[in-house]
Give the backbone structure.
Amino acid sequence: MTGLSPQKTPKVITVLLADDDIGFAKIVQRQLQLFQNREFHLIWKESVEEALQEIQTNQSIDLIVTDYVFPGTNGLEFCLQLNQMNSEIPIVFVTATRDFKLAIEAMKLGVEDFLIKEDLAESLLPRTILNVLERVSMHKQIRAVEKRMFIAEKRAEAIRELVVTVCHEFNNPLAAVKISADLIRRQALSDEDKNLLKGFEENFRKIESEIKRLRDISFERIDFHGSDHSPSGQNPPPSSGSV
């Protein structure tokens, strides 16, 4: 009797929420808890300063959800600061402001999605988070493949230049040897010397043929790489803040 392979438990998704509204933080917590078959860990920070401190010390954050309005600053400034930190954590803007110019400015700063608070259905935010993470992961994979292809092309180019140089270095000595063999052939030679010269010329032609094959290698066809948490259940409350 064949047993079923155990299914891999999906990774717990750590979400940092930057929003000074405790009521909205509770809504986000509830929506993430209720979402089917996925476990979210919510970290709530009431200010941009607290959120930045958390990002600097916590390497497990998978995604940031931020509001636009904060005392003394705003979500766009938050995004600018994240860019200056070279943060690669994807960002979702969730705000009460139905402003398409704001959405465009947020997208220019690298925000992955823009949602309106009053439009949030029970599953919209968690689905958006999962879609963003999947999209970002795919983009990273594409960039990794492109990087490997670029490195392979550079290696092929370097080897091609080396081969051309080597073949060029062979040209002059081979030409000199060929001229010398022609001069010898015009001399009065014994049968034994003629046979030696004939054998030499055959080997010489083989060398020329191998050099030509080396020069004509298609480097594009060379492969430079070789065949080269916790169980699901009730989510814990946010790590900070009294939600």
Observations:
- The chain has two domains: 13-142, 146-221.
- The beta strands are 13-18, 40-45, 63-66, 69-70, 73-74, 91-95, 113-116.
- Helices lie at 22-34, 48-57, 75-84, 100-108, 124-185, 191-215.
